[in-house]
Structure prediction request, 84 residues.
Amino acid sequence: MPFCYILYAESLGSYYVGSTSLTVEERLERHLQMHKGHTAKAKDWIVVFSQYFETNDEARKREYEIKRWKSKRMIERLIGSSTE
Prediction:
């Protein structure tokens, strides 16, 4: 079950973009419990976007595409368009 996902932490006002072969809920749980790095800075991460792919490579490509944007505004547009 490959996914590209975006997390948001209100306490940091920041997004985290990742991909996983786990369910998004399982991956979020790992971020909240035993993750190091950027997501260890907060414990209020929530999933604000997820997109399913057929392969891990496709999910990873989407993750890297979003990261290359380096734009909070574009990420927020993507999140907004997925909820409409």
Summary: The chain has a mean pLDDT of 93. The chain is about 45% helix and 25% strand. The two ends are 24 Å apart (CA to CA).
